[in-house]
Amino acid sequence: MPSNHMGRRKFIKQLSSICVGLMTSRLWSANSSHAATQKTPSLEYRTLGKTGLKVTAVSMGVMNCSDPAVVLRAFDLGINFYDTADCYMGGRNEEMVGKAFQGKRDKVYLQTKVHAHDEQRMRASVERSLRRLRTDYIDVLVWHGHNSTEEVSDREQFDFMEKMKKEGKIRFSGFSSHSRMAPLLKEAAQCGYHDVALVSYNFTHSRDLKEAVAMAAKAGVGIVAMKTQAGGYTKEKMEGLNPHQAALKYILRDPNVAATVPGVTTIEQIEECAAVIGTSLSQRDLRELKAYQAFLENRICTLCGGCTGECSCGVPYGDLLRAVMYHDGYRNDLLAKETVKDSLSQQIWQRCSECSSCTAVCRRGLEIKEQIQLALTLYSHDA
Amino acid sequence: MGMVAGAVFASGAWANPSLLPKEPPEGWILVDGPRIFTKATLFEHINGQAELFFKYGFQRCTFAVYKDRSNPDQQIDLDIYDMGNVLQAFGVFSRFRDEDRPMGVGLDSTLDEHSALFYQGKYYVALYATESNPDVLKQLARKVSENLSDPSPPPREISFFPKEDLKPGSIQYVSEGFLGHQFLKRGFHGTYADGDKEFQLFLAVFKNPEEAKTGLRAFRNYLSNKGKIAQETPAGFGPDVVRGKDPYQGDILVLQKESYLVGVAGSKLGGKEEERLADLAKRVR
Question: Which chain B positions have a beta carbon within 8 Å of A265's beta carbon?
């Protein structure tokens, strides 16, 4: 990894030059990989679970992108898997993707989404997506935002996807999720209804999720990781390391992840992400990345909920920690203040600030008391 | 409904029912809400789409559901997004608006069979109907509009764009990554049609003229490295102008004026495009 004051350009160059050993290094060996790797000089492809699709490990979340130039740059870089949704920008996001890939459809894989409704509405949604994407098939159609295991193993939803497959409108199906992902992935591994799972997965998440990802991947579910950057930390905070690349590399270390879909909005960002493709890490890089990981582990609350209800004064630790994360990580004080304001009454805040016997303990070793103290210092006037 | 009479606690925040219309359209009732979603909870409401709203300064969302008394399958979801200011509200509206089908509500609006969208002051309002129901959508949108008190006028930059050849409803405000570039940050663009040929006028917004000059230098560098720079520039645009070929936007002509970069992009630029660019540049102040 770069020295303390390495610039972004130099870092990208260095990443490009140390590309070969990530998956072959002993530490990162992919013995249990279900997302087998295959390299070309500049790209790394992984198999998307039982779909068999060879997708670029660094792919693209198109969601917030406003200009087709960014999508076309991604295509020129060799990226072949694109995630959009029926509802993003009221369908305009799908339209942009469809227009950008007109004449190139056979060279890319498109993933979009559908919301669970009655069959008539779901069919209409699929038809709209096909029209907007200017195609007669969707490579991967996923349910938008599953929250419960019941949804994951819903037989009726599975039957709908099977119909869509038989009719040739989609090739593969799956679900997306932002919360309770570990139990949902385990359910997916058991029920066998899903080819793909699009899950929020980044350096802030717990071992539980990592294990669930492995379990699902072993069962043939192609894992696509979204929210890979988790907001990103500022350069100063990470001693010169580019936060987005580091976060992406972190998640690409997991061989059970078939593809990552970082949400990018500029040509510069997609180039930055693509520079991570196929990278390897020297021993020095590995040491520094481990240090970075340790740095993060002591500072970031993964919102696992393990400390919920532990305070006798009724202080919602998780909300305070989230506020600190917004302050420290996202550098978004407004969001932090709002979190505090929404979560804590003045009374609870008072009790917390006067309490001399804080019992807060984090199962992941986070310095929880320090963080609560920081929240008290920063936001006591906003409660 | 009792819910409308007082403040309601939902999703961790006190909802302000005054944003909702006092009476729904005849024959319709409020069945859910008002519920408030904040930056911390918007994901629970609209999933990944929340990120787009954050990029436009999202403050909070008031959500409610209305149903037709005689046919409960007919439902309309109402979202009133407080975006902080009129520029951000227009920005989100412009990203969602599909085609130009105005319904005469708010500062600008669009209506189709299943949805009605408009922005007014700092508010972006979206109504979605489960069944085709443009009449009731329009009625409810009008009632919501009457209740919103922010009198801010539309962003002034919209008026800079010449009307001639402008595709109705095509002006968008992008809050970051304008034209796909980090160095341009934010700006407006509008699509123009000259017969079958389309081109785009754009306006990148900077804090001051110095930053705009830096932006022009960055643009020149980008074109030198990734595209082509033309040696000759058209007369009448002053010294701070760059002409070239962008690998993804096509021919491009861009100049700095005040705190803006004003430009035109298209597959092949000619007299018409330059004329429209001159019109746009003239209006920028």
Answer: 55, 176-177, 180
